[in-house]
Specification:
Largest sheet: none
Number of helices: 13
Structural class: mainly alpha
Distance between the termini: 42 Å
Order of helices and strands: HHHHHHHHHHHHH
Number of strands: 0
Strand content: under 5%
Radius of gyration: 19 Å
Length: 291
Amino acid sequence: MRSAEVLILSLESDEERFMQARDLIDFAAMLATQCEIILERQTSFNDQGLHQYWLASKCRFQNWFEILDPSDSPEPSIVNENSSVILRPYVEEVLLGEVLTRIWAAIGCAYDAHRPDNAHRQHPAVAPIVRNVYAMHQQGRHRLLTLMASHTTLPLEDRTALDHLRRRCERWNDILLGHVMQHHDVSEFAFSPAVAVASAEDARRAQTTSEWYLKDELTHIALDQTLDGNLLAPSPNQFLNHQILAGIIESLGAEVLDTTELLPSVWIDRVTHLVDDAQELVDSLLLLDEL
């Protein structure tokens, strides 16, 4: 089973700051199961962390755009192994990463909805940032679905496997979203609102602390069993995936990290330095805009 500690070891490495797409959905599960603590925070989200999250997401979307836009690159006339090796990791990254994008957007919108009016005047809202990233991700999703529908782009075996992955990710998104639905109506981020509502009701039935922790543990076990099958590695945007996670963690700040088992407090010192990498992201984004 993958755990927060495994992710932290990956994130803390100075030499290899890379995260696979599979790690993104693991992190989404952690955020969803700990969303009550996040939503009850007394301070605003860290602006630097939110900016890093947006910037890294923007850079990653630009990379997706170049690969997944069928109008900007000629379609391969012959389906072969090379097309699968090049395209499939991008498709996996979009599908798996979308769960984190939706869960984080739901948490951000729920947090804004729960804040008093005077807090909105003192600090910028979170919802516009997470909604903007969500909108970018939806563009990437639309492009990949168009690509998957083309019989000349990927072999049938790959298209079938990726379609199964898409449906699993959609199902998991709605199951995890149920945790947030207990606190606010965020059904707009569900593929099937009915599944999200049912998941919320199921979570409410976990009355005792032991039942709650058991449910969370089973969630991560089930994720391993249903998603680890045929994923390709490495992901094409490992550094940007890392920066997206780092931006979210920086957004949460010490108040939440000190009161939840999502991440141990030793990670706080490390993550505060990762925002310095924002300049590298800015340079990358400016370079992409010039192309």
